[in-house]
Design goal:
The protein is mainly α. The protein is built from eight helices and no strands. The longest helix is centred in the first third of the chain and has 23 residues.
């Protein structure tokens, strides 16, 4: 692609992610208008709204998978890997704010990648439970989903918070809760 086409696609993707995060039912026309582009330009790149959603989720998954690798979830000490993961995930979540549950598609590749991601996180949580960092008496998926919600909260409700501080806060909240401890 030409450099200007790459810039236009990047702009379109970034704006699309923000618009759809705000309004999951937003149309291609709304996204195009906010991006300052003609609707036909958007349709040349994405034949349908669903195709744009799939591209956005693929971009988000690329970022999450990169963060998982960099955090060394299977090799690093659990607490270190957890902090690295959150610190890397906050910027990815801010860049791609659209949530996976908004995907209205049965795209097999995206679903396969999401399943692999959940499995890797579940393995990490199980390792954390075995090593005594996480409780082992909670329902399956509870810690993973709690982690997801805490990252979503800090990434989108506290935009001025830098990722290292955000990771500190999420780890502390996940491990100690919000109650006062003696």
């Amino acid at each position: 692609m030409r450099a200007d086409a790459v810039r236009n696609l990047d702009t379109l993707m970034q704006v699309g992610a923000r618009v759809l995060a705000r309004d999951p039912s937003a149309s291609i026309a709304q996204i195009a208008a906010e991006a300052g582009m003609d609707r036909r330009t958007v349709y040349r790149r994405f034949a349908t709204r669903e195709a744009m959603l799939v591209a956005l989720f693929a971009a988000k998954l690329d970022g999450v998978e990169r963060v998982l690798e960099e955090a060394r979830m299977a090799e690093a000490p659990v607490a270190v890997a957890l902090h690295r993961y959150i610190e890397g995930l906050v910027p990815v979540s801010r860049q791609w704010p659209v949530e996976f549950h908004h995907l209205e598609s049965d795209d097999e590749e995206i679903e396969h990648r999401r399943g692999l991601l959940r499995a890797r996180l579940d393995e990490f949580v199980e390792r954390g439970s075995r090593e005594g960092l996480f409780r082992d008496d909670l329902p399956p998926g509870w810690i993973r989903e709690s982690l997801h919600e805490l990252v979503r909260l800090v990434a989108h409700a506290f935009l001025d918070m830098e990722p290292p501080r955000a990771a500190d806060l999420v780890v502390e909240t996940l491990l100690r809760g919000v109650g006062k401890h003696p």
